[in-house]
Specification:
Layout: H1 14-27, H2 32-37, H3 41-54, H4 61-74, H5 78-91, H6 95-102, H7 110-124, H8 131-139, H9 144-167
Helix pairs in contact: 1-3, 3-9, 4-5, 4-6, 4-7, 4-9
Pfam families: CMD (PF02627)
InterPro entries: AhpD-like, CMD-like
Organism: Methylobacterium aquaticum
Amino acid sequence: MTAFTLHTPETAPQEARDVLLRIQASWTFIPNLHRMLAESPVTLKAYDALIGLVGQSSFTPAEQQVVYLAINVFHECEYCTSGHTVLARRSGLSPDVIVALRDEREIADLRLETLRRFAEGVVRERGFVGDAAVEAFLEAGFTRAQVLEVVLIAAAKTISNYANHLTHTPLDPFMAETAWVAPGNRGQAS
């Protein structure tokens, strides 16, 4: 396995240092994902910018977490599923919805289930979900802007999920109680 460095502001390439310092000041620590992405300052900056833009989307924080978790679970990203479970709790998303997302089970709340299905479909079908799926999404009370904001979140999660797969980013300590094992790895976990 190729080892990737978990950079600090002192070890990161110069172009990544300000981003890491800003994250540290905001979060009081630097998540391992960001430390690993610092190897490529342009990738770190792209991910950081996209995540910031998601925060400006018209989705509520809880709805954002539904989309994040749906995509993380679909991509089988253990790091992001574990981390977004913590963020989903902080957003006020109910525990039963979080469990359903992590276990790939139907969400009882029809609107959130529609959101989950649409987000997963966009990723699975690479955007080719068809007009019926878009119409069902709109009929559930979402907007045309939110159709495109799902794509924004998918772009951010594609960067982090794929990078984590390639680099085997270790979980941060705050994720210990929310650790998640991807279905494809469950036979290997013991």
